[in-house]
């Protein structure tokens, strides 16, 4: 039973360390981080907590590997006598107990399958190796000086003659762009550094803000597609290219009401023009016709 208790204790330690990570993420940057390089201090603290989680996970994996799987079904022991219980409120206890054992078996089986699949996947979501020593954090798309953002947006504004881009900063240093695409539509895009966080597309006769959607279905569809493009072009290592790619894609809506669908050849389908633009070719498609 000693290896079993060791594994249970490893699970408890891992849950505690993971809880610390979520508590730190929930609290965000605190006052004790100071005013200078507070973002880097917060990221270093988070990296240290994730390293602890990684160590605890390896310890749990070692503890689980030391366990010997039971040769047969679980021995219910004295709980088998629960079937002889005559009290009405306790008669269903035995069936629930058997279900819990079966559920535990399935969790163990699925856990082994998950470990096998994850061990075959060498890809990492993070660009930081938590097992390596601490080093200088690379500047991300979240932490970019306002001057750099203004320069990138200014170059994009000069690139397209029929699309005007105005920069506002109503919320501290983060930029909010007001985009006017000819006489077709207008939009607002909220940035965090050089990362696009939110886009709202409306018609020229509507009040432009970040909180309400358009009353026209065509612009609500364009807003949904803009959110998909925002995620598609996101690149933490090349944020300037990501913004330029998104704005080039968004500029393709200058023919929203004039170009027909590339698949069906019609201008309207379900009373809507082609509201989808292919990410690579920028060709227009109806929502039902897109590849």
From TrEMBL:
GO terms for biological process: regulation of transcription by RNA polymerase II. Keywords: Nucleus, Transcription, Transcription regulation. It is found in: Nucleus. One of its GO terms (cellular component) is mediator complex. Belongs to the Mediator complex subunit 27 family. This is Mediator of RNA polymerase II transcription subunit 27. GO terms for molecular function: transcription coactivator activity. The keyword Zinc does not apply. It comes from the Eukaryota.
